[in-house]
Design brief:
This protein has 10 helices and 5 strands, in the order βαβαβαβαβαααααα. By secondary structure, the chain is an alpha/beta fold. It has 2 domains: 130 residues, Response regulator (Rossmann fold), CATH 3.40.50; 75 residues, Winged helix-like DNA-binding domain superfamily/Winged helix DNA-binding domain (Arc Repressor Mutant, subunit A, Orthogonal Bundle). It has a 5-stranded parallel β-sheet, with helices on both faces. Helix 2 packs parallel to helix 3, helix 7 packs across helix 9 and helix 7 packs across helix 10. The two termini are 22 Å apart.
Length: 225
């Protein structure tokens, strides 16, 4: 997954060259990096070489159709979490249900309207990135300052607030303000404001120094950014 400041990578899978050209042009003008494949097998191979952020997948293709392509994709852990938007002229409810059952999260109807596709891609990319941040937070190593006695010592010695202590804990892990904001649900600016208060209370001027003070209380060495 690309950085949140970047538009992202979109894989278009369609056996009709005109559709590929139409969507590629629209997405590239919007700033996306575009990958293309003309069949399901090629799409699966392409995704394993370069992981896209979103897949636009034609439902009806010769050979391996879009539904089966999506099912195989969802069975592969490395690419299972990539959101799939089906493109289809099939609007009967059973086909829509089949698309969702295969693992798709949305669909657009043909003939394709690029503006609609761009809006849906942007919306699902935002959602995917939020989910990725949440998963990263769950996997993030907990600070070594989790010991209650260490926390109490820091709070009492430096008169830290609960939020300031949380920020200091993650600074000691080497996290950036943006990382800490994502973890704590704060804006980077708010994190920076808390960090300024921490600097004053600890009598330091840099995050490395603040981390060193905190980790000294825990008897460990700080991480640096």
């Amino acid at each position: 997954m690309t950085d949140n400041s970047e538009p992202g990578v979109v894989l278009i899978v369609d056996d009709v060259p005109e559709n590929l050209a139409l969507l590629s042009d629209a997405l590239e003008r919007a700033g996306y990096k575009v990958l293309v494949a003309m069949d399901g097998i090629s799409a699966l191979e392409r995704m394993q070489r370069m992981r896209p952020d979103v897949v636009l997948l034609d439902a009806m293709m010769p050979g391996l159709d879009g539904f089966e392509t999506c099912r195989r994709m969802k069975a592969m852990p490395a690419i299972a979490e990539i959101p799939v938007l089906f493109m289809t002229a099939l609007t009967e409810s059973e086909h829509v249900v089949e698309g969702f059952a295969a693992g798709g999260i949305d669909y657009v109807t043909k003939p394709i309207h690029p503006e609609e596709v761009l809006a849906r891609v942007a919306a699902h990319l935002r959602t995917a990135r939020i989910l990725q941040s949440a998963r990263s937070q769950q996997r993030a190593p907990r600070p070594s300052l989790d010991d209650e006695q260490v926390q109490l010592e820091l709070v009492q010695r430096f008169a830290l607030t609960v939020r300031e202590l949380e920020v200091l804990q993650w600074v000691a892990c080497g996290k950036t303000n943006r990382d800490i904001g994502t973890i704590l649900g704060l804006s980077p600016r708010t994190v920076n404001k808390h960090l300024e208060h921490v600097y004053v209370k600890l009598g330091v001027e840099t995050r490395t120094a603040a981390a060193a003070v905190a980790m000294a209380a825990a008897g460990a060495q700080p991480s640096t950014v």
